[in-house]
From TrEMBL:
This is beta-glucosidase. Residues 39-63 are annotated as: Disordered. GO terms for molecular function: hydrolase activity. Residues 454-655 form the Glycoside hydrolase family 3 C-terminal domain. Belongs to the glycosyl hydrolase 3 family. It catalyses: Hydrolysis of terminal, non-reducing beta-D-glucosyl residues with release of beta-D-glucose. The keyword Hydrolase applies. It comes from Streptantibioticus rubrisoli. PANTHER family: LYSOSOMAL BETA GLUCOSIDASE, PERIPLASMIC BETA-GLUCOSIDASE-RELATED. Keywords: Glycosidase, Hydrolase, Signal. The lineage of its organism: Bacteria, Bacillati, Actinomycetota, Actinomycetes, Kitasatosporales. Its EC number is 3.2.1.21.
Length: 661
């Protein structure tokens, strides 16, 4: 059962905490580390006597920044108790510790996360940095002063923060076919995120969406695994390309997710809530799985050296081997250990998805044991950290989880912490706060929006628009920044309305033309206009909540959108339709009524980028990253299918010259 924070409610209000308190606590811990180590032990390990952390003020090897990372890891590992090791493998939600952050110290937590919408109040860069530094001070108060790693879903910009630069969602970035732009996007995202505290992002999604009915389709760069692989410059943008980059204030550790097959599940196989595709079963043979689902992970590991990977909630069921039963990725030793770590050579660490292990069969000790032994290294157990720790310790003590597996997991986690420079600089380097949402960052997002627009029809020279034209704009999504940003924006599910600063598509159009009328429901008189612009689309959703078949979600246009098209395109001699949605919508019957049709995706905070191409200030260059179906029933439909008769094929998109023609 998911307990994602629905919004930044009082439940997540943090206890104000100054950095000074943290420094004092850390100093107190240094003193404490000199006292007999029995104090640091838990009753379950009576015979363990760990070596002290500090000896007479001498710098221990793991604290020496001049030593190689592997040496520091080994030194630190050799000083750790089992309890401390298990603590490093545990990640809690900030909301679970905020009212009593001393739990970070007592549980020896290795990591915290902000789930979608788990924000400080006020939701400002300074409040984020103060909050995370406060938590950090409690981590530094542990016997060995191991810093905390803070993770967050920066999936289209630092999207939990109000005022961040919000980029188009990945599906739009796939349409740009511009890997350098994706790298720039994620470098900006890394800069804005790390300036506020988190040093780790749960991005990029390397999901290959094979069924547009999937609610996470917009998180995917596209249906072709090779396109997804090309866009792995995202990882370079996040992490940098030199080993030293990670420690800099403009980089973060990246996560490739959700390994693997999350976008390739069979409709109707999900057993979670009322989902239909998300968290379902990928029913496949090894050859197909390697070619479609696994392929993006090979360059992610070998070429881009991604620091962490999140196994998918979904299951894999082989049609060419095994016992023919679905195995959850969190329990999938074959794919986590044998394939990913051993064959592909992944050196980073595996982070379980939100309470993902709870979906495994058996009681809690069985779930924990199965997942650790399958190869998971860190556990996102948002509200169950304490139970997780005691359970795993017992499993190790009972000999059901080998100590070597624990050491391997902790080694991987500590390596990342050293590489991120956290032992030297545990607190937030805030120097880049002034760049958050800056004109320079927004300019890159605006360019991304423009490059992602896909022109699917242009008859009668309807586009480009001219500044002198009288323009009639209709449709709710023309002037709704929450809708154009989509899910994972300030809250997990996203929200309609005025949620973030930025520019709506309508505002962009108004900047380029002086005679613009806006009527959301097209009720204003339509006479006297040269051109109509009808914006149709979806309202925000995230994950399985947006699966078609769940909660009324469908690929079909709403009746209000169809009515707007009928009215505006029926009355005004030229009409342009924009689709603001996370996936193609069914427009087969409406297409003949339109002169021009543009897929705008979920552009984020910079709606002017849409106007830039509409008015020909930038050319249309976007190409479909997914196949556009004729009907919902045509799903799943993908390039390479034996019977392939879509409305628009994968890769389609009319390109125009610089002036929009
Ligand atoms: C979710 C998602 C995952 C995300 C995590 C943390 O359940 O599946 O993509 O990173 O929670 O918010």
């Amino acid at each position: 059962m998911r307990h994602h924070p629905p919004s930044a409610g009082p439940r997540f209000r943090r206890t104000p905490r100054s950095r000074l308190v943290g420094v004092l606590l850390a100093a107190a811990a240094l003193v404490a580390s000199a006292v007999p180590t029995a104090l640091a032990r838990t009753p379950d390990e009576p015979s363990e006597t760990p070596p002290p952390a500090t000896v007479g003020g001498r710098t221990l090897p793991y604290l020496n920044p001049h030593l190689p990372v592997e040496r520091r890891v080994s030194d630190l590992l050799s000083r750790m108790t089992l309890t401390e090791k298990v603590g490093q493998m545990t990640q809690a939600e900030r909301g679970a510790v905020d009212s009593d952050p001393s739990q970070i110290t007592s549980l020896g937590l290795g990591s915290l996360l902000s789930g979608g919408g788990s924000t400080p109040t006020p939701n400002t860069p300074q409040a984020w940095a103060d909050m995370i530094d406060g938590y950090q001070s409690h981590a530094l108060a542990t016997r060995l002063h191991i810093p905390l790693l803070y993770g967050i879903d920066s999936v289209h910009g630092d999207n939990n923060l109000v005022g961040a630069t919000i980029f188009p969602h990945n599906i739009a970035m796939g349409a740009t076919r511009d890997p350098a732009l994706v790298r720039d996007e994620e470098h900006i995202t890394a800069t804005e995120t790390r300036a506020t505290g988190p040093q780790w992002v749960f991005a990029a999604c390397l999901c290959v969406t094979r069924d547009k009915r999937w609610g996470r389709t917009y998180e995917s760069f596209g249906e072709d695994p090779q396109l997804v692989a090309r866009m792995e410059t995202a990882i370079d943008g996040f992490q940098g390309t030199n080993p030293q980059d990670l420690a800099r204030p403009d980089h973060v550790l990246a996560t490739a997710k959700h390994y693997a097959g999350d976008g390739d599940t069979t409709y109707g196989t999900s057993t979670t809530n009322s989902y239909t595709l998300d968290q379902g079963v990928t029913i496949t043979d090894h050859q197909h799985f390697d070619r479609i689902d696994l392929a993006p992970y090979v360059p992610a590991v070998r070429r881009h050296h991604v620091g962490s990977i999140m196994p998918s909630y979904s299951s894999v069921q082989w049609t060419d081997g095994g016992d023919g039963k679905p195995v959850r990725m969190s329990a999938n030793k074959e794919l986590l250990t044998d394939v990913l770590k051993e064959k592909i050579g992944f050196q980073g660490f595996l982070i379980s998805d939100w309470e993902a292990i709870h979906e495994l069969p058996g009681d809690y000790p069985t779930e924990v044991r199965t997942a650790v032994n399958a190869g998971l290294d860190m556990f996102m157990e948002p509200y169950e950290a304490s139970q997780f720790e005691s359970t795993l310790i017992s499993e190790v003590q009972a000999g059901r989880v080998p100590v070597s597996r624990i050491d391997d997991a902790v080694r991987r986690i500590l390596r990342a912490k050293f590489e991120l420079g956290l032992f030297e600089h545990p607190y937030t380097d805030r120097r880049n706060i002034p760049t958050i949402g800056s004109p320079a960052h927004r300019a890159v997002a605006r360019r991304a929006v423009a490059e992602s627009q896909v022109l699917l029809k242009n008859a009668q020279g309807a586009l480009p628009l001219k500044p002198s034209q009288r323009i009639y704009v209709a449709g709710v999504n023309a002037d709704n920044i929450g809708n154009q940003a989509g899910g994972w924006t300030v809250t997990w599910q996203g929200q309609s309305g005025n949620t973030i600063p930025g520019t709506t598509i309508l505002q962009g159009i108004e900047q380029d033309a002086s005679h613009v009328t806006y009527s959301a429901d097209a009720s204003a008189p339509t006479s006297g206009y040269d051109v109509g612009v009808v914006v149709v689309g979806e309202t925000p959703y995230a994950e399985g909540i947006g699966d078609v078949g769940n909660n009324g979600h469908t690929l079909n246009l709403s009746s209000a959108d169809r009515a707007n098209i009928d009215r505006v395109c029926g009355a005004i001699s030229r009409c342009v339709v924009l689709d603001v949605a996370g996936r193609p919508q069914i427009v087969t019957d409406e297409l003949p009524k339109m002169d021009a049709f543009v897929m705008s995706w979920l552009p984020g905070s910079e709606g002017e980028g849409v106007a830039d191409v509409l008015f020909g200030k930038r050319p249309f260059t976007g190409k479909l990253p997914v196949t556009w179906p004729r009907t919902e029933g045509q799903e799943p439909i993908n390039i390479g299918d034996r019977h392939y008769d879509p409305l628009f094929p994968y890769g389609y998109g009319i390109t125009t010259s610089h002036h929009g023609r």
